[in-house]
Amino acid sequence: MMDSLRMISAMLKLELRRLKHDRAELYMRAIQPILWLMVYGPVMSTVRAIPTGGIPYTDYIAPGVLIQSTTFVSVFFGLTIVWERESGILKKLLVAPASRYATVIGRSMASGIRAIFQTFVIIPLALLMGVKFLPNPVHFIFAFLIIFLASGGFSATSILVASLMKTRERVMGMGQAIIFPLFFASNALYPVKMMPQPLQYFALINPMSYVVDAVRGLLISGDLSNLAIDLAAIALFDALMFTAASISFRKIIE
Questions:
Q1: C-beta separation of 113 from 20 below 8 A
Q2: What is the pLDDT of residues 45-59, one digit of tens each?
Q3: Torsion of CA 207, 212, 215, 217, to 10 degrees
């Protein structure tokens, strides 16, 4: 147990050191969310065809854009795993006195660290663009925790993909095939009830829908009536992805 906790802690510290020496990626990845909030949000606000419950449309999509950005970082985390395999780092990790489950959780949650720092870049920019967040520090802490945990699940999904695809080109292609359906078939840009019936069924099993709903309730609308369901769905998603990635993890070096 202590070995597993030390492994997870070591992975988190490693990611913090990487961010300390190279923060350029965080700033570059903020460009896309800025475009969503500066261009797409104001333009669609003029249409007034999307029911947002009285919330300005740019404010309504801000949590979805934020989650899309952090999920994008996590879904492509498998590229780092492939690079570590090619450089021999993964073999050293697998001989460490810790379970594969702990190794996968440690690597996945390291991506959560990167997602939190991505959030620290995007939220101030959203404030400058006029997005009105609820002034509640407790809500912000819970929202960051949810983003951290959800990013771990999406990173585990990427590790699972990396263990099956093995090359950076295939991981990148599969990542793009995952991120866009998750984003557009969720409640990030519009309510789920506006979608065709088959997409509404998909949105029910789409983990991004629950992450966006929880973060929107905490930061924008204040509606926390579904928070317990959202947290249960995120916990189930993380458990499934951590387990599947742990089972498949050794395949990446075969």
A1: no
A2: 777 778 888 888 889
A3: -110
Band (pLDDT 50/70/90 cuts) for residue 230 is very high
Q: How many CB atoms lie within 10 A of CB 161?
A: 26
Task: State how far the Cα of 145 lies from the Cα of 162, in Å rounded to an integer.
Answer: 26
Question: Do 30 and 122 form a contact (C-beta atoms < 8 A)?
Answer: yes
Is the Cβ–Cβ distance between 102 and 12 less than 8 Å? Answer: no
Spatial separation of the C-alpha atoms in residues 183 and 164, rounded to whole Å? 23
Tell the residue number behind the tokens 């995007």, with chain if given: 122
H/E element, 213:
helix 207-216
Q: Which two tokens stand for residue 212?
A: 């966006």
Instruction: Evaluate whether 161 touches 175 at the Cβ level (below 8 Å).
Output: yes
Can you spell out the DSSP letters for 120-139?
Answer: HHHHHHHHHTT------HHH
pTM exceeds cut of 0.90? no
